[in-house]
Structure formats: structure tokens, C-alpha cells
Amino acid sequence: MPVFEELVGSWNVVPRDTGGPGGWILCAKAAATAGEVLLCERALVVSSADASSENKVLFAELAELERRRALGGSVALGVHAAACCALRSLGSEAVRGAVLCQCQHAASDLPEAAAVYKQLLKSGLLPQVGSFSAAEYAKLLSVVQLNSFHFEPLEVPGAASEEQGPGKAMFQVCRLMNHSCAPNVDFQIRWGEEGVATLRLAAQRDVAAGEELNISYLSSAPGEALGEARSVRRKRLREVWGFDCACERCLAEAGEPENGSSRASTPSLSGLEW
Ligand SMILES: [Zn+2]
User: Fold this and answer.
1) What spacing in Å lies between the alpha carbon of 202 and ligand 1's midpoint?
2) Per-10-residue mean pLDDT for the chain, 274 residues long?
3) Per the count of CB atoms within 10 A, which of 20, 89, 197, 200 is most buried?
4) What separation in Å is there between the alpha carbon of 73 and the centre of ligand 1?
């Protein structure tokens, strides 16, 4: 587990270990008013074709593998790109320490992912991670899929969108946040020089001291899943993140709790975290 105190600094957030299946969560240190910025955090890893010329080559190679249908059907190009970027920028030892060791989720069975990894090694795109196993790579893909923040090409100022490709960013503190269909915080990813990304977390409404901070994993854009009916939202959350949402909004819209479930006993992102 990283030293959260160093990462959090004087910002208005505090990571808490629930000690239960929910794992680590993020809470407000002190009361906050709507609009208050609670945390700015630099990304641990960013995958983007525009981040560097090396990344451009990596994306081109992945696109070629995808064209040859070597990526398998269940994992997106952006997830592979983020996993490769993590290995390239952090190295295999740091990935084991900072990423894989914190993943309580069993590695997915992804033989296709292992095949891609071997091809990337063979092509020399990942020269420094020869001791990293294909099984670890498959697990890394699960970690990326469950914990990274997706960004759209247009969010990168000046990026040529057709070259930008899909992007993922991973954050050590913000990854702790669970989902709610009625989130109390929202985030923006901002871009600095040379592909450095910073996530800015702001209160969407007044938040009490100690209150758990929840973002929405579902997009709030018009016509997107967050605005949909309960069954649509829950289906999407189950398919992509593997849990049954039992947030206050889902419980309220169900009339009464299903099977006596409660927030605390619900599988959450933290339960599946890195
Ligand atoms: Zn919900």
C-alpha cells in the first residue's frame, strides 16, 4: 500500500481501511461545501498516443495486433495500452509493488492477453520487463480495467483526435473511490506538459466530515448510463466492473432493499482494487 499521507498531503481527503470486503475507501477529512476542490492528484500512469513518441509506436503496434484480432474480444485497446505504459514507465518491480500487490481480485483467465504480452516482448516494445510473467500481465489488465479513468481525445489540448487513441490514467488515491449512482463528488482530468495528467476532485454537493466520497463510474453525459433507469445502470456496472450496485439511489428506486443487502456488504470497486 502506498504511503497515502505523502500522496494526500493537506488536501481534504482521507483514505480509510474498512477492514471488510469493501477494502479501502476515500472519505472527506473535514466538511466541504459544494464546488470545493478536495484533491488534486497526479497520475501514476497515463496511456495516450500523444504522451510520447514511444507511446505512438506502442499504440501503432497494438492497433496492428487488434487489426489481426490478436487482442481477444473482451479487453479494449486502451486497457492494453495502459498496462503496457505502466510496465514501461514504472518497470516490472514497481508494478508488482504498487499495482499488483494491492489487487485483491483474482487474475482473469485471459489467454489472449498472455499471447499479446508475448508478442509485445518479442517485438522489443517491452524490453525491460522480461521477468514479468504473462499471468501477471493478465492480472494487470484486470487492474487497469477496474481502476483506471478513461479520457476522451478531446480532453487533451491540441491533440489530433484521430492520432490520440483511447486513453487511460491511473491514480493511487482516487482509485479508492467507490461508485454511487448519486455521487457526491465529480472529477476532471487536466493536462500539463508532456502528457502529465492531474485529476481534480470537487464536491458536487455539501459533504460532511468523514463522509465517504463516491464518484460515478457511469458517464453523466446526456444520454449516457447515469441518467438511465436503475436496471440499465446496474446491468452496465455488473458487466464492466463486476458488482451489483446497492447505492442509496438504487435502493430508493427499488422501493426497498433487495435481499436485505446493504452498502457495507456490497462488493465494491475497493473489493476488486489493485
Ligand atoms: Zn446505484
Assistant:
1) 20
2) 73 89 87 96 81 77 78 72 86 82 60 80 74 85 83 54 63 90 91 75 97 92 84 91 91 66 35 29
3) 197
4) 27
